[in-house]
Amino acid sequence: MSANACLANRAETEPYRGSELVPQALARGTWDGVVLPYVPAPFGGDVAGLPLSREFNTDIDPVTYQVLRWRLWNINLEHDDTIRRVCGTSIVCHALDYNTSMLAEDGRTILGGPSLQRFVGQGDLSVRYTLTHRHPNPGISPGDVYILNDPYIATSHQLDVAAYQPFFWEGQLFCWFFNAAHCMDIGGSQPGSFCAEAKDIFDEPMTWPPIRLVHDGVVQQDVYDAFRRQSRSPAAIALNLRSQIAGLDTAARRMTALLSEYGPRVVKGAMRRMLSDTSAAVRARLREIPDGEWSETYLLGGLPDRRTRRLRTVLCKEGDVLIFSNEGTDGQLPTGNGTYCAFRSAAMSAVGTMLAWDQMYCPGGTLDQLRFDPYPGTFTIPSHPAGVTTVVGTNMAIALAGQVVSKMLLCGPEHLHSRALASGGLTSAGWCHAWGFDETGTLQFAPMTDSVIGALGASPGLDGVDTGGSWEWPRTSAGDVEEAEALAPLIYLYRREQADSGGPGRWRGGNGVEIAVMGNGVRQFYFQGEGNDPAVNSAPGLGGGMPAHCGDWLIRPDSGIREAMAGGSVPATRAAMERELGPFDRVPVGQPFAIGADGIGIGEHAAGAGCGDPLRRDSALVLEDVRRGAVSTAGAERDYGVVIRDDEVDKQATVRLRRARREARFRDARPPFIPAAQPPPGLDSVGRPALAGMLFMLFSGGWHWACDNCRHVLAPASGNARSGCALIETSPHSLDPVRYPPPAAFCDDNLVIRQWICPGCAQLLITEFVKADDPPAWDVRLSDRALGQLAVQGTPEERP
Question: What pTM value is reported for the model?
Fold first, then answer.
């Protein structure tokens, strides 16, 4: 379609006019941000007394469009860069825990920035709430800046403070600029404001619905002082706010120059085109995927009552529309919950990343193809006044969204199939805090950003990336340890990639990071892990790939490390510490532990999960991993069945060991619940991609799930592939005591790893971490219409 033709069709430039909630969700209550979360009214409509700039050209030539597209992108980047240059706090400057957006006059998000993606679903909620509830009182006018941190309106938790500004041109509201940034401490019961022991939101920092911080270009001193007063570190809060205002000012000045050069109708036309192009790209790709339903369930552990909770996301595809639901998620807890804003942002981020990768990140266009079916009062979408500061529910909702979209892509054509991504670092939001009191009794603390180093999970045909960040946080780093040591009362004994932490698979998951810290210059030193109990693993692989190490928190009070260091010894790994200093104790998440001036805290952060059967990994790749220290020699043999001697693969021993491992799988497995009849060779001898390790194959009796290694038929495509697989159940701790810590330390539920294998060749097809009494999951359900779609999706293609 030509550039002019795309805009000539007016319908393609208009937003979806219905509610983003499905009808049954609208019937569950009033979604106004009071008790239930805020859900905006449909796009469109006037705002009484507020002139909106809506006219635009439809005849922009392709060259001008591309120039304007990049000019708008660079305005947003300068907005982003200004915040980072002015702020000075480590959480913003190094971890990049912030983001920027540009929005249309009605709140549709034109552009999101390249930092933390969960913020892209906050801008439109903030703007649309403000349009509805802040005009005409106190008003929306040139030179205004609003701030907001209310999780029941438009943030993940109170620490993510939003600042946003209306931009007027020739007396009309032309667009909005928005940013949100993590503040180091804004009050609450614990230093740093991650209030893991809160009974509800009233034990957490104060929530601020939209309030005007700047009016007519002048900071309102009363609001500014009141906001800073909540913090244990008011100077850092001042830097955050000033940097956010400076970023908005930069964006406004750059937009003024752009409009002066091209005029408002041309620039607005480019904005509309970006929205319509993104919607069209997502629609086209969705039409290549069969209709159906995909789901993922994570278990949440580390709770006071020693029971696990279920967190579930369901994705239903109907034509070119995706419906996201959290149906099946357990009820909200006193704290740690997610928010509707975060659940919605997770869906927008996952779909934008995996289905609109070439559209310069236009979240508003992605949102046109999304609907939501939220169940309130649950851990990922709570009702007021449930607490949210530790963002466990938020981070797991993001990981769940990535998993269900990846499963959907695995059922699509090859060019989409290969973009699926196993879960990675930050899946369970494991991070740690350290603080202490100096000789004067003064509290010293600073955020520790090591967890954001992350790791990427594997994809079909591609290994994950060691310490490679996160798919939803593409531009992040933790900064140097010296930076943290200058701000916090601690010394790093080491920070390093943790060998063998990535999930084994035909394509290996990326390794995560591990740290060890001790106090420095304080009488008492406190160490605290946050997140989900990592032993209740929530970093699942794809297509038989094994889960990643999801982290661990360990302490040794009065360790003797100072005496060891005085003697010239500095142990640089956990194993070396345990050999020299003695055993460390696993500790539960969410509780601060006083470990003394001579104590050590160890934090192991989540890694990336694997994809595909580890026994099918090329032994040359395993050898390369061993040579560069990513996999140990013992790990090569244990996880991949590859024997390495004298820095080379022992090929004969490897063949024997892998044969023995497959025979052991046959021996240990229970037979299929419903063995599938094996039809004779039929119409389709190649097959179409399904979940990694499987194919959709056409036989005379219709479409079936089949193993991609031996073509053994597992089940009809309309059924559950697990029904035709053999099953092995194993204690996770018995597979690898470091990668999978013992869940029983803090959980009374019997947890197992289930491995579903092909009855024909013993290929590992599905791996999952579940409760032992869970019924078999049915996480991929193709619709009746989908079976017909399979037949018209083009020439079958062989999987890599």
Answer: 0.94
